[in-house]
Each structure stands twice: as C-alpha cells, then as structure tokens.
Write a structure and sequence with these properties.
The protein is mainly β. The chain contains ten helices and 30 strands. The N terminus is likely disordered.
Length: 557
C-alpha cells in the first residue's frame, strides 16, 4: 500500500491508517445481493475468466470452466450469483441457481425437502472433507463422488452442489452428500442424450472394452455395443484383431432398446461402408471366372471371400469331377487362394454359388475323342464292387471293368480275388458314353489269343476254310479255328436247289487237323458248291477284319 503521507497516494494526509483499514474491510464485506440470482452482461472473455457487468461499481468475474464448454462472447446475458469479492475488488460470481442457507431454519427445510444446496469445500480431514454451507458440514469420502484421495483433495476450494443427509441442530452436526446429486445430474444428462439419439445417427465414440463377441463403446457417456458381425464387411473372428481399447471410432446407431431401467444401444461400423451386395449382379456374371480366398470350410462345402463382406459357396459336389470327395479339406483349406466359376447369383438370399471343378475344365467334354474304342489305358484301381472295378484314366475320368472282362483264364467270384484298390492295371477301351459319363474297359482283351494271331496273319480278300456252325436266313456263323469265329453273309439260294440237295454228312473227325493245316494260309482245295447249311466245311472269302473289335466278316467263296 502506498505511504498515506505521500501526495501521490490519493489519500489525504489527515486520514489515519485505521480509516484506510476500515474502508478496505467494508469493501471486502459480502454484498447484500450475495447468492441472489442476478442477470449480467458479458464484457469480455480472457483465457480463463469471463468478466461480467452486474450493475455494480466493479465487474464480476466468473471462471471460464464454470461455462462447462458453453460458448460465450461479449454481449451475452448470464444469470449469476455473487459469492463475495476478491482482494482486487472484483465480485466473485457463480452460475449456481440454488441458494446458500443462512440459518438453521433454512438448513432444516432443505434437509426435509431433500433440496440441492451450494457449498464450498474448505478442507480435507480424516474420512472426508469439510464443507461451508453457511455452517460447517462434513462430507464423507464415500459421498464425495470421487475415486480416490487425490481427487478428493482437489475438491478443496471448489464450489459444489450437495444435499443434507443428516442434521442435528443441538450438536451443530451436519452431513452432506455430493454423490447423489452428481448421479442425478448424470442420469438426467444421460436421459437427455438418450432422448436426442435416434436410429441411423452417426456417432463418435471410444472403445472402452473388448470381448469375444464385440466391443463396448462410450458414446458421450453412454455405453453402446458394437457386435463383432457389425465391425467390418470382412469376416472377423476376434474383435481384438482390428480394435484396441481407447481407440476412437465412428459408427452408426442400429438399435435402441429399453428393458426396465436398462437402455441398450447397438452400433455398427460396417454400415458406414457401401454394401458390396448392391452391385453383386453387375460384378459377378454366371460363367465368369473369379478369384478369392477360402474363409471357412464346412461339411457341405467351402466359403470363398470374393471381397470384404461378400462370400460365395463352393458346394462339395462342385469341388471335383470325381464326385467321391468325403471331406472338403481333402481339396481346399482355410486361407487357400482359389479360382472358381460363378454358377449362380441370388440377390434376395445374398448367395453366390461357385464351382471349383468348372474352373479346371470338364474332362468328359472330349473323352470320346481322347479315348476312342480300342485305346489302351493304364491307371490305378479306385473302387472295387461285386460287379467289377473302377479304374482312373485321368483326373476326373474313370472307366469300369466288368468282372467278366478282367480275365479270360478263369472265372472270378469277386474282383477282389484278383485286384486290389490302388493297383495299377492296363485295359482297353471297349465303349464310351460321354453323355452318361461312362467308359467300359476290358483287361482280358489285351491278353494275346489265337484270334489275335489269326487277325495278324490274314487280310481282306484271303480265301479261308471253315465250318458252318449255324445259319439262319441271310447270315451264318462260321468256325475258322479253335475259338475263332466269324460272321458270313449268305447269297440268296433257290428253293429248288435246297430241296435237291441231300443233307451233307461231313466228316467232322478230321476238321481240327484240316483247319489247322488250312487256316494259316494253305490254298484250300475245291469245295463242292451246294446250298449252305450247318455242319458244312466250305471255303470263304474275308470281306472285313476289325482288329480293334476283333471281328471277322466272310462271304462264300
């Protein structure tokens, strides 16, 4: 303070120090309008203080933090209460709308009505803090709405809202509770936020915790559930693979439900990204080849992720042309990159059917050209049945060897008497039916016989000798040697010639030796021309030799 005796002090020399002290004490006294609501006008705003004109000689000051984030500028109107004056002469202001009781009668009334009152925390003591509410009150730490002792100490010197939960006028014992007031305010604030949020809103939140089924997200003081299926369009097995605690996210409100006092909000991140199914029919045409990654393997097939949020299914029947797959994992596994063909697209069900075997090509398309009758093949026995065995010719193409075509040396009771699964065998193609996807094979046909030798040593036009076994109309069956038979076309014969001809009695005892001498190229002797009938030994001319089918056709020489 300036020396009262100096002319620059602004105080007359006759004024004593005691007078100056009285004036300071008078200026420091609380004004009569303390705790009464006043309307003030904001003069200016500094980094931490709002200066307000309340109609007094000095301005009022309000801590900027009391605005709780509310924007304020010069000229704005505010309702405030005067708490007192600071050493510099400014009026200390509060935005509290509740009055500070001045007497015990007011305190008892506030207790009975469970009213909220204002108080100032004056100090920390064992078990809690002291609070000035017009009288000295005690607030237990458990009722302070703080988490630990350090937060409790930070309350000292601050103005709080509280409620009297115990009052004893005789003992001047008062206990106040801040936690209940804070909880009510939080509940009211939460109710307000719940009322403001609607389905479809885009909100920003912070991941609070992670579970196997999703994440809990704080969206402005409210907990929302982000289910794992709503995190991404791509399939996610564990939320922790893409989210971390404390991460800020943007999501869309999907559902709001109320069960009793509990309110639940469901949110989703993937809903903010375009749905790939909206353009699926344009991007995936039937018959086109696509690439993807096997995301899941199940008993009935494999799911392939074509793009995030869009999968196709390869049914087990579309994995291989072999059609004998017992387990999908025999062909593909999770994580495999595959190429497939689009078989169908159902937008209503959000399903795309894929085929793996179609991408490899149908081996049956050119089976008839690749394996014509007479072709010799070699392959493993894949399956044995009572009626025969199946032999793999190439991947996806199998042929069947009937039990009667396995061997000509002996009669088999069951194919397993001679063959085993996995055994590599040689066979000859006997017939091909591409439409039915069937190829008939024969093994015994590759074993050389007397017929094979006969076919190798004769040509079309050769004249040979044979015995007619039977004849019917225009065709007869002829034996050219042991186990060697041919078909002979007969020329028309007159009925008179047939009647005039006596039944021939051939000497069959020498047939074997005679044929053995003649069938290998000997020039046949003259044969009496007479009507053909069973039992005759005659000369024939070879008109056709089919070595592949092992067939011989004749005519009478």
């Amino acid at each position: 303070m300036a020396d009262p005796q100096t002319p620059d002090s602004g105080i007359e020399s006759t004024e004593s120090f005691g007078d100056v002290l009285k004036q300071f004490e008078k200026a420091s006294r609380k004004p009569k309008d303390e705790n009464r609501q006043l309307e003030g006008t904001v003069i200016t705003v500094s980094a931490d203080t709002v200066y307000v004109d309340i109609g007094y000689k000095s301005e009022g000051i309000l801590p900027l933090e009391a605005m709780r984030g509310e924007a304020v500028k010069a000229g704005d109107k505010l309702f405030v209460s005067v708490k007192g004056r600071d050493p510099e002469g400014y009026y200390e202001l509060s935005r509290g709308k509740v009055s500070l009781p001045k007497d015990w009668t007011s305190l008892e009334k506030a207790f009975q009505e469970k009213a909220t009152i204002m108080g100032t925390v004056t100090g920390a003591i064992k078990g809690g803090v002291t609070v000035d509410i017009g009288v000295r009150a005690f607030m237990p730490a458990s009722r302070s709405a703080t988490k630990d002792a350090s937060e409790l100490e930070k309350l000292v010197g601050s103005e709080i809202k509280c409620r009297i939960i115990k009052i004893d006028v005789a003992d001047e014992d008062v206990v106040v509770d801040r936690r209940a007031v804070v909880q009510e305010e939080e509940r009211a604030d939460r109710d307000r936020r719940y009322s403001e949020i609607t389905i479809g809103n885009v909100v920003t939140g912070t991941v609070r915790s992670l579970t196997d089924y999703g994440a809990f997200v704080d969206i402005g003081g409210m907990d929302a559930l982000l289910h794992v299926s709503d995190i991404s369009r791509a399939r996610i097995n564990n939320p922790a693979d893409v989210l971390t605690v404390g991460q800020e996210i943007e999501a869309q409100v999907l559902k709001i439900s109320t069960e009793g006092d509990k309110r639940r909000i469901s949110i989703g991140i993937k809903q903010l990204a375009p749905d790939p199914w909206n353009s699926a029919t344009e991007k995936y045409k039937i018959g086109e080849r696509v690439r993807g990654t096997v995301s899941r393997v199940v008993d009935f097939g494999a799911f392939v992720e074509l793009e995030p949020g869009l999968e196709g299914l390869i049914h087990i029947s579309e994995l291989s042309w072999n059609r004998k797959i017992k387990r999908v994992s025999e062909v593909v596994k999770q994580g495999d990159a595959v190429e497939a063909v689009v078989l169908g697209v159902k937008m209503d069900d959000k399903r795309i059917s894929l085929g793996l075997k179609q991408a490899l090509g149908d081996p049956w398309e050119k089976a008839a050209q690749k394996f014509p009758v007479g072709t010799q093949i070699e392959g493993p026995v894949t399956n044995i049945q009572k009626f025969g065995v199946f032999v793999q010719i190439v991947e996806g193409v199998e042929g069947m060897v009937h039990i009667s075509d396995i061997t000509g040396e002996r009669r088999l009771n069951h194919p397993s008497d001679m063959l085993r699964v996995g055994e590599v065998v040689r066979a000859q193609v006997l017939n091909v039916d591409a439409e039915k996807r069937q190829i008939k094979l024969g093994m015994k046909q590759l074993v050389p016989t007397g017929l094979d030798e006969y076919l190798a040593e004769h040509n079309v036009g050769d004249v040979v000798t044979g015995r007619m076994i039977d004849e019917s109309g225009s065709e007869a069956r002829v034996e050219l040697g042991e186990g060697i038979f041919a078909a002979c076309r007969l020329k028309a014969q007159t009925a008179k010639a047939e009647e005039a001809s006596a039944p021939a009695k051939a000497d069959l005892s020498s047939l074997g030796s005679m044929l053995q001498a003649r069938w290998k190229g000997a020039t046949p002797g003259p044969v009496k021309q007479e009507p053909a009938r069973a039992g005759q030994i005659r000369s024939f001319r070879i008109t056709s030799l089919d070595k592949a089918a092992k067939k011989i056709e004749l005519e009478l020489a």
